[in-house]
Write a structure and sequence with these properties.
Layout: E1 2-15, E2 18-23, E3 26-32, H1 39-51, E4 55-56, E5 62-64, H2 66-69, E6 72-77, H3 99-117, E7 122-123, E8 130-145
Parallel strand pairs: 3-6, 6-7
Antiparallel strand pairs: 1-2, 1-3, 1-8, 4-5
Helix pairs in contact: 1-3
Length: 150
Amino acid sequence: MKAVIQRVTKASVTIDGVKVASIQNGLLILLGIIDEDTKEDIKWLSNKIANLRIFGDDNGVMNKSILDSNGDAIVVSQFTLHANTKKGNRPSYIKAAKPDVAIPLYEQFVSQLENDLGKKVQTGEFGADMKVELLNDGPVTIIIDTKQKG
């Protein structure tokens, strides 16, 4: 699994002109899934995101997690995170999991993150043409790949 985590002051997802998700302070998480991803990847990534200290404390130092700052989250599926651009100019998405594999893992990730955060997590819609708006705070953008836990 690969995640792009963005600290935001606001974010939303709109599908066909209808706003389906909206948060203020928190995280916008773009999530890419491959066939090799497992429940262990889900647990590890969710825990890492929930405890990632990228929110400012009273001194403006990034010492607080989304849990500490009581922030909200939106998770958006994004197969393009696994684009291969080594050959030519047209990206290949062959590594991205097909919907029959990706959808259950995506749903399990959302459920695990809700459990780890102790609150509802908003989402986009898997496979939909989504318009994602955000105001990146900082900007703070972190990329995490479960295959590089090292």
